[in-house]
Design a protein that fits this description.
By secondary structure, the chain is mostly helical. The chain is 79% helix and 0% strand. It is globular and about 75 Å long. The N and C termini lie far apart (58 Å). 44% of the residues are buried.
């Protein structure tokens, strides 16, 4: 079956739309995660999602809905709690991670809940997305774009030097907490696409590649979006074309794109060094 024929199937159209939104927009939060050294935060939020799912199951509520609410609350509270304890945000994430995991398993034991029922929130299938999933993804994508547009200057200064931003009158803690919240929501909806174990392909890999070739925040964001689209849309099309597993193919495509960027950047650097030596 040709790729064009897939457009006759609503599940493919939803998957393609999700790939565009995730790769082109959600990947932008990866820049903040990498630059602010928040990579461990994603693990904390995943464990918080597990706690939220377990509470939701006890209350006969949707595990996915419970996980998303828990992620939003955890992401927003993480910064203030770290400030109150006077520890680094990453260390605060470690506290959240261990505490939420322990509490989740305590609830499993007390309520007699099969743990695997809650762990279902970590699985993802981009072809199984519902209209509600697409709406959620679109809302988070709009929030990400609005955050970047409205707080562009503040984010730029925060990523450059948070202490300098504070001295210039910018409410850096509020901006940081908002970034954490949006990062958490992005991670939550991204898990629905490829699963928790492969979510870095959408959130982190494009940003890692863009930071190698971008010269400023704008160019890094544009590069992140382009690389994210190559990874998600390209991975989706490759998976359908060759009947490969979707999440794995999207992830491997992201790794391949990052590898190509790294190699090309290395070659360019070597050529520039060689040209400088010749010029001398």
């Amino acid at each position: 079956m040709s790729i064009l024929a897939y457009f006759n199937y609503p599940i493919f159209v939803r998957a393609l739309l999700a790939s565009i939104l995730a790769g082109g927009i959600l990947s932008l939060v990866g820049v903040a995660i990498v630059v602010l050294n928040l990579t461990t935060i994603r693990f904390a939020l995943m464990h918080i999602a597990l706690l939220g799912a377990s509470i939701a199951i006890i209350l006969s509520f949707s595990p996915v809905g419970g996980a998303m609410i828990a992620i939003a609350c955890g992401a927003w509270l993480l910064g203030p709690i770290a400030d109150r304890l006077k520890i680094d945000t990453a260390l605060g994430g470690a506290l959240f991670m261990t505490g939420s995991l322990a509490l989740a398993f305590f609830l499993f034991y007390q309520a007699g809940i099969p743990a695997m029922d809650a762990f279902d929130v970590f699985t993802g299938n981009i072809l199984a997305l519902t209209k509600a999933d697409i709406y959620s993804l679109a809302i988070v994508a709009v929030v990400v774009l609005m955050l970047i547009i409205v707080f562009y200057r503040e984010i730029q200064l925060m990523l450059y030097n948070s202490e300098l931003a504070e001295t210039l009158g910018i409410k850096s803690k509020f901006v940081r907490n908002t970034i954490l919240l949006v990062c958490g929501l992005s991670l939550g909806v991204a898990m629905r696409l490829v699963g928790a174990l492969l979510v870095d392909a959408i959130i982190l890999l494009p940003a890692l590649g863009a930071l190698q070739i971008g010269t400023g925040l704008t160019s890094v964001l544009v590069a992140t979006s382009v690389l994210g689209l190559f990874s998600t849309v390209g991975g989706l099309l490759l998976a359908l074309k060759f009947n490969w597993p979707l999440g794995v193919t999207i992830t491997l495509t992201g790794v391949l794109v990052l590898g190509i960027v790294t190699i090309v950047k290395s070659i360019i650097n070597k050529v520039q060094i060689h040209n400088r030596r010749d010029a001398k």
